[in-house]
Amino acid sequence: MQAVTWLIASGIHPKANTTTLEVAKDLATRMDYQRGIVLYDLDGTVVRTKQSRATVKRHVGYLRELGALVWLIHGSKRNLRLPGRKYTATATVYGAVIPPCYDEAMGHRISYQGYESRKIGVTEQGRLRAIAGARTAASRTPGPRTTKHREPHSGGPHHDGPVSEVGGKAKATLPRARNSTSRRSILGRRVTALSFQMADRIARRLRHLHNWTQRMTIPELSWVLVDRVLDGYDEFQIDRWLRENAPAVIFGIEWRPASPHRYLAARLVKEHSVELADRERAAQEAAAVEPMANAAWRKLCAERAAAAAEAHVPRTAQERREARLAAQWDIGLVIDHLQEQGEDDALDLYGTRLTVKAVGLAASRHFHAGLARAYA
């Protein structure tokens, strides 16, 4: 949605306007978070946006022309013949994408191409732009909340959190420090007012999107998210992290934590310990000494190489003639040599004809059966 808003505001498409943004919002609310796919649902979109069918079709086309929407499956009028339904057509499936011009303008570093491309980092220009946007968002003071925009009440028990009621409005505050030292996050980092404000803003926007986070208060969730904000996570990355660490994903749908904020904090600490262990292992591997860096090992390898060179004496033509003459009367000599010294040395000593014959006999079941009867 950030990319769509930027594309419409930039004026790249002369006909894209607020109606295009409204249609995009309807698609985004029904979109799969993992793959970014959504069913077209033309009739439902017409009802929800209160626009005509022609208008919805036209503005969906504008989204495709802007590069924010792609066809994944083309729908058709062919009847799928589903049980209990007289007629069901094939649905059209769209996929949400971000055009390269937006990534270039935002300073994003992209890996892979096409629908599988992903953001892997930011350039220096993108980093400065993100910092400026975060400071601008943090400096905004939220307006008074109305009943229409309040978060829905959760069905589970409520937890007391560091919330101060002033004039009927909930204001997020940092937990009281027991001493004059700076406040520390769950992972022991120093928490600034700016980082907590960003975490509080993200918590207010994401809390109602997950059924299990609704059992947390806003200050509880924002305090857990402070470390993710300090790690440089944006809102979409934190939303994905919450989905990946949902209790239903980790332990199954039957288990629900009594204190969701403590469960999420434990997941955060566990991930941090795994990251520290990986960094320590990588540092140990980088600092490990190569075997050839040891003088004693190099000396031993040199001595073994010299001994092997002295032990190898080139064969003479007379030795080859005598070995081949003996092998003509006893092919077992070649078979034994193959097993002990290998095929290359056998070719050098006995030649190609005798070696090929010995290989064939060694693979023959009748030859081994005859040997067994001879020695029985």
Description:
The N and C termini lie far apart (85 Å). The protein has a 3-stranded antiparallel sheet with strand order 1-3-2. Strands 4-5 form a two-stranded antiparallel sheet. Strands 6-7 form a two-stranded antiparallel ribbon. The protein has 376 residues and is mainly alpha-helical. A hairpin with a 2-residue loop joins strand 6 and strand 7. Helices cover 55% and strands 8% of the residues. Helix 8 (218-230) packs parallel to helix 11. Mean pLDDT is 79; it is low at 149-175.
Q: What is the terminal separation in angstroms? A: 85 Å
Overall mean pLDDT: 79
- Unreliable spans are 149-175
> Helical percent range?
40-55%
Record field, number of beta strands: 7
Strand arrangement across the biggest beta sheet: 1-3-2
Q: Choose one word for the global shape.
A: elongated
Question: Could you name the key traits of this structure?
Answer:
376 residues; mainly alpha; two-stranded antiparallel sheet
List the helices and strands and how they pair.
Layout: H1 2-10, H2 18-29, E1 37-39, H3 42-49, H4 53-66, E2 69-73, E3 93-96, H5 100-106, E4 108-111, E5 118-122, H6 124-139, E6 163-166, E7 169-172, H7 193-206, H8 218-230, H9 235-244, H10 247-250, H11 260-287, H12 295-311, H13 317-329, H14 332-341, H15 343-362, H16 365-374
Antiparallel strand pairs: 1-3, 2-3, 4-5, 6-7
Helix pairs in contact: 2-4, 6-7, 7-8, 8-11, 13-15, 14-15
